[in-house]
Amino acid sequence: MDITDEILHQHGEQRRHFALLDEFPRDDVEGLAALWNRLAIFLETHAEGEERFFYPALLKLETGAADADSASEEVEDAVKDHNEIRDAVRKASELEVGSDAWWEAVTEARIANDDHMAEEERQDLADFRRHADLQTRHDIAVQFIVYENQHARGIRPVDRDPEAYVEENS
Ligand SMILES: [Fe+2]
Ligand SMILES: [Fe+2]
Question: What are the residues whose beta carbon lies below 5 Å from ligand 1 (ion)?
Fold first, then answer.
């Protein structure tokens, strides 16, 4: 097991879930709600799992990859992105499923998530692949997967202050 593979794979699944919404019958509100609820839980537990287990380990490296000068820069950015994703997911979850406003909010969540995944893959995952040993990558994958499975029914998403998060975990 490897946390960088696991996260990358789950990003693919997230893209696929959004793609499913593209082709789903737009008048099947019950179906749309079911798809969205599951995707919202997935996005939230994925982000929370990263913040609990992956980023603290990334911060210990204090390196940086691609267009990020340091791990703290990468992580501060990532937590900021997660807050944006959480806000967009929350917004969509409060709207009437299938309405124009709901589709707009879902698109906002998708844009925030797409932007974030690209950066996370290019910086954070690349950094960890290059600098973390295989045992660490394995151990974090185990913690991350257990957390997500234990919370498969959903969590109460909490925004974090990016600077305070980096300070607390450095
Ligand atoms: Fe991610
Ligand atoms: Fe993330």
Answer: 7, 120
Name residue, tokens 């969205």: 36
Task: Please report which helix (H) or strand (E) contains residue 110, including its range.
Answer: helix 100-119
Helix (H, G, I), strand (E, B) or coil at 153: coil
E strand or H helix at 100, and its extent? helix 100-119
Q: How far is CA 134 from CA 46, 61, 142, in A?
A: 21, 14, 12
Reported for 59-65, long-range contacts at CB under 8 A and 24+ positions apart, including other chains, are: 59/166, 59/169, 59/170, 61/127, 61/128, 61/131, 61/132, 62/170, 63/127, 63/130, 63/131, 64/123, 64/127, 65/122, 65/123, 65/124, 65/126, 65/127, 65/130
Give distance in angstroms: CA of 119 to centre of ligand 2: 9
Neighbours of 111 (CB within 10 A): 13
pLDDT band at 86 (very low <50, low <70, confident <90, very high): very high
Q: 102 C-alpha to center of ligand 1: Å?
A: 23
- How far is Cα 6 from Cα 111, in angstroms, rounded to an integer? 21
Q: Which two three-digit tokens encode residue 91?
A: 């917004």
pTM greater than 0.90: yes
The whole-angstrom separation of Cα 90 and Cα 109 is 9
